Amino acid sequence: xxxxxxxxxxxxxxxxxxxxxxxxxxxxxxxxxxxxxxxxxxxxxxxxxxxxxxxxxxxxxxxxxxxxxxxxxxxxxxxxxxxxxxxxxxxxxxxxxxxxxxxxxxxxxxxxxxxxxxxxxxxxxxxxxxxxxxxxxxxxxxxxxxxxxxxx
Length: 152
What we know:
- The protein has 152 residues and is mainly alpha-helical.
- It has one domain (2-145).
- It is built from three helices and no strands.
- It starts with a helix and ends in a 7-residue tail after the last helix.
């Protein structure tokens, strides 16, 4: 009975070590997603700060400048919605990658084949990441076309 437990324990240790090896790549992926989220939240913060500044100016604005401020605020609102969606998609990506890692460890401990589940979760994670990057690119495009340099 003792020998069987030792063999079983050694197999579990090997399975866990293998799960850790498999989880290294998704963990690095999580750090990359985290860096993208930091960039996106920084952009959202700047959009919000700019909108608050324009809203303060709106109170004392002359009639001809009032219309320009409202147009700028509408553009900032559109950009905020785009970047919010990009952040939501990239956060979903991170959650899906975490689920991949969790399934790798659960399958190692319970000794079942989770390859189909892991593959589907990874495909879903990459799909949401691509969509998040596309929405981020769209926000950058909208921000760039609305850019005005110099006096108005």
